[in-house]
Amino acid sequence: ETGVTQSPTHLIKTRGQQVTLRCSSQSGHNTVSWYQQALGQGPQFIFQYYREEENGRGNFPPRFSGLQFPNYSSELNVNALELDDSALYLCASRLQGIYGYTFGSGTRLTVV
Amino acid sequence: QQQVKQSPQSLIVQKGGISIINCAYENTAFDYFPWYQQFPGKGPALLIAIRPDVSEKKEGRFTISFNKSAKQFSLHIMDSQPGDSATYFCAALNAGGTSYGKLTFGQGTILTVHP
C-alpha cells in the first residue's frame, strides 16, 4: 500500500484556468517531487522540494509552481492551463539521502 | 532531450518465459538505476534498483544486469506470469549537481504475458 496520497484523482478544467493538485507524502519523507506523465510516455520531472524550498526544476515554464508544507503535504499549481497540460500528474516522496522514491497514484488532469 | 533510451516499446511473452527489457543512458552523473512497474490507473511502483558499482542484482524473479562501460542496463523477468503484464520503466537518478534527485525515465515497455 502506497504511503503517498494524491487528490483529486480526476479533474477536468478549461483552457486558461488555474488548477491546484495536492499530495500527502509518506510520513518522514522530507523530499517531494512532481512529475508529468503524458499518455504513453514516461514521467517527466517538473520540480523537487526539500524542506519547503524548491531545489531542482525540469524544463517546465514558470506557470508550473509548487509548495511544500511542514506536515509533508505539497501542492502543484498550474496557471493559464493549455490543452497540452492534459496528463497524469504524479507526486513522489523520499527521505533525503535515500534514493528510493514512493509514488502516488496520480491525478488525471484533462484540459478542454 | 531523451537521456534514457528504452527498448522494446512492447513485448509479448508466454507464461513461464523470460522477459528482457533494455535501457541505455548518456549522462555519467547518474548514480542509481531503478526499474518501475506501472499498472493502468496507478503510479509507478519501485520494482528493483541497482547502483553502478554492482554488475548484477537479483530479487526473486527479477534481475538487473548493469554494464557501466557500455552505459547499459537491463531487466530480466524469469518465469513470467500473466500478473506481470504491465508497463515497465527504467529510470536513472542524478545524485549530484543542479539536477540532484531528479529521476529521468525511459519511454516505457508494455509487457503482455499470455497464459
The SS-based structural class of chain B is mainly beta
Number of DSSP E strands of chain B = 11
Strand content of chain B: over 45%
* Largest protein interface, residues of each chain: A-B, 28 and 27 residues
Order of helices and strands of chain A: EEEEEEEEEEE
What's the main sheet of chain B like? 6 strands, mixed
Sheet of most strands of chain A: 7 strands, mixed
> Low-confidence segments of chain B, ≥5 residues, pLDDT <50?
none
Q: Which spans of chain A have pLDDT < 50 for at least 5 consecutive residues?
A: none
Question: Which shape of chain B, going by the Cα principal axes?
Answer: globular
Total number of helical segments of chain B?
0
Summarize the helix and strand pattern of chain B as letters.
Answer: EEEEEEEEEEE
Number of strands of chain A: 11
Question: How does this model look, in words?
Answer:
The complex is a heterodimer of chains A (112) and B (115). By secondary structure, chain A is mostly beta strands. Chain A has no helices and 11 strands. In chain A, strands 2, 4, 5, 6, 9, 10 and 11 form a 7-stranded mixed sheet that branches. In chain A, a hairpin with a 7-residue loop joins β9 and β10 (102-103). The radius of gyration of chain A is 13 Å and the shape is globular. Chain B is an all-beta fold. The chains are: A mainly beta (112), B mainly beta (115). The interface between A and B is medium-sized, with 28 and 27 residues.
